Amino acid sequence: MGVVKGVSGRCKRCYTCVRNCPVKAICVEAGEAKVLEDFCVSCGTCVRVCNQKAKEVEDSTSAVMNRLAVEQTSFALIAPSFPASFYESTPKQVVESFRLLGFTNVVEVAYGAELIGRESKRLLADPAIKKPIITSPCPVVVGLIEKHFPELIEHLAPVVSPVLALARYLRSLPGYKDAYMVFVGPCIAKKAEIRDPEVVGLVNHVLTFREVKKLYKDKGIVSSQLPGTPFDPPYPGEGRVFPLMGGILKTGNIGTDILDPRIAIIEGYHETMEFLRNFKVSIPKQEIIDILYCRGCIDGVEIDSPLPFLEKRKRIIDLVGESRHLNPSSLPEVDLHRKFHDKRRKVAEPIEEEIIEVMQLFGKFSPEDELNCGACGYPTCREKARAVLNGFAEPEMCLPEIIKQLEKSVGELRISHDELKKAQDELVQSEKLASLGQLSAGVAHELNNPLGGILLFSNLLLERLREQQKEGGVPEEIEVIVKEATRCRNIVRGLLNFARQSKLQKSKIAVEELLSEILEIEKRSAPNNIIFVTHFDKSLPRLMLDPVQVRQAFTNIIHNAVEAMPDGGTLSVTTRYISASQQAEINFADTGTGISEEFLTKLFTPFFTTKGIGKGTGLGLAISYGIIKMHRGGITVQSAVSKGTTFTVLLPAEQEFEDNLLDSFAKNTMFRGVR
Ligand code: ADP
Ligand code: MG
Prior knowledge:
- Helices cover 43% and strands 13% of the residues.
- The protein has 675 residues and is of the alpha/beta class.
- Adenosine-5'-diphosphate binds at residues 556, 560-561, 564, 590, 592-593, 595, 603, 608-611, 616-622, 645.
């Protein structure tokens, strides 16, 4: 189990962890970032940068508390960076807080640093060592070299870290061989370090400062209010400077002069990575390179301190100031040796063709497409393709490509949304018409016979009365009955016509001839103050139409126009051939009352009428709509109140062979089951 792991369900796919992970030990799988233990160096960068708290550090608090409850002798080995974390308490108060947690001994790791400092100085003085030495107290640096730069292992100082040095020393003392030892510090990589087979068993657990504060909370310990007790021996000297940059060099009295050509100090994530990458390219001339992945341990991931960097640094220096000087020759001799191993997990190096193929999956077809924007977390599109091929990344992780796709689909959605709305409206309309067709067919048939009887007998009655009372005239009531019954018959006829529209009988028709015929008849019945104007496009070919039905459709439109001009006006009927779409456009423009906006959407709805009772049936436009639709045409309206209305009909100037198709369309869509 790795020290750091992803928390399921928290990842929001920002890829910040991938971007910041120095070794790309993150695998994005099913949209979630997971930590790859084989590559992870437990630096905690991903924990630090993830603001979704989607990365979790192994928690050792309960394991430690369980052990403390049963152990006779237990050591808290406190990292020298502690004053930066427990800044509200004095060192003595911190010590007492650990005793309250249950530790029998509380010792400063700085003593181990003294041992390592002296060892480093010895290594430097060893004439047998001819290559630059990289110091090894930082477990992240060790992890980086073992897992990612194993060719540098030969340069790693073959010594343990200060806490392991201290543990080895303590275990060599009488009675402490099997004592329970817990390292307490700011570093999560220490949790991995103590498990390394080379050193396992020296330190039993690692608690981070953050975990300690969690335990304080659980146990109600306020360290700043404790009287305080001193650390247990052994006592360090200036080794307390270890968590600062160059600390090892100062502790070992190797030198701190920045102009000293023998030494180099590397600290921080970027510098460390740059140094390791370039080491073999240009082998450093320095004899010893002190290197810490964080900006000193006071910057460790779990330092858990709000203090500014320099303030943290000052806390360490203050404590160093209180230290006595330790003569290296007074330090005990402890075996500090350890080995490092090549732990690199090899990954396949994909061939160029594979990379090209994968890049195409996220829209990289040419070098210009390779933006290398880093949004996916990888520095280049190629790196990302490599990661995809190794199963660590998903092709979808490309932000520019996602945006491109999104824009495309939003664009498509916009078009189809409009079309969808239109289609939906038409569907609703045709559904209404279909059910109306069914209803009207039934009702009209039922009404037709009794109505025929009423009309027949009322007419007979009217005639008989006329004959009998030649001089006195007939009672008005009878005339009303005949008139109203006639009106009923017209309505029923309309309904029957409507229901009968299910089949088109098409032939080639010259539209202008049809229109002229209709207008001729209309002129006869229309008031004199209405002028009819026509403009016919001579290029309009003859259309395949059902002349009876189209006549009815046009008649309805013209009737309405006439009715909309009670005080007179002009009706212009215009035809136009649209060759591009092979359509005939027929315009009926009147100068009548116009239609208010609220009514515009209802015009084609069956039974919608603004005409008074006994005047309109509200079926005219619904019928026209149905007829035109069955011809695969369209009808639209534009209107301005008090100015006039224009109905525009579009009919296909179609070929004859489409007839059968049209018929089946009509049967299947418009008037299902009506006949
Ligand atoms: P009806 O004519 O029986 O009322 P229609 O379906 O033919 O039924 O027309 C529905 C309504 O549409 C009419 O009542 C009228 O309000 C309106 N309308 C139709 N054509 C016009 C037009 N040219 N000018 C103004 N209003 C119109
Ligand atoms: Mg009408």
